Amino acid sequence: MSAIPATPSPPARFTLPAETVLRARERLVLDHFRDEVLQDWDATLSTFPHPHYELIAQMLVHDGDSEVRDYYHDTRAAFPDQDHELITFRHSADAVIVEFWLLGTHNGFLGKIPPTGSKHRTRMTAYFIFDENENLVTERIYFDQLTILKQLIAGLDKRKPTGLLKLFGVLKGMLATAGSKPDPRLSNTTPPNLSN
């Protein structure tokens, strides 16, 4: 009688953690979203052992407590009423993937872009990545900057001199930030090993 060959274990990327782990991750991410809307930065930052954001559209990294607090400050100065509408949650072996709408009214400077007073509602995806000890180590956010900018410009009355002046300020601000170099932590990537 011949032995039945052992079934090889699937690679870790194909194996989801236990449901209790997935539920704990999801709860942490929901708390993170809630605390961001409440602008409770201490609570939001407590969801990470070391805060780390990656904004793929801008190829920017905000790493550490101070940089992430500055990011929170700057985005809430631009959009004081920033909020989220959750669309869906998905789980992977090492992440919670959230699709959501980001909403806000542009009432302050967004980098070098002056306030337009316009509202935006932009669909985004965020990957909340966990390490082998179930610590949240990265929030990686994907979105289309042009979608936001189009909405901010669309709200301007271009028939009035004040609207044209704001449009000129927005274009000038966009050009001032267009030449920034991508963070090498995001641009220097290595293909995954898919052999196991």
Automatic annotation (TrEMBL):
PANTHER family per the UniProt record, alphabetical: CARBOXYMETHYLENEBUTENOLIDASE-RELATED, POLYKETIDE CYCLASE SNOAL-LIKE DOMAIN
Protein name (database record): Ester cyclase
Organism per entry: Streptomyces benahoarensis
One GO BP: polyketide metabolic process
InterPro entries per UniProt: Cyclase_SnoaL-like (IPR009959), NTF2-like_dom_sf (IPR032710)
Pfam families (UniProt xref): SnoaL
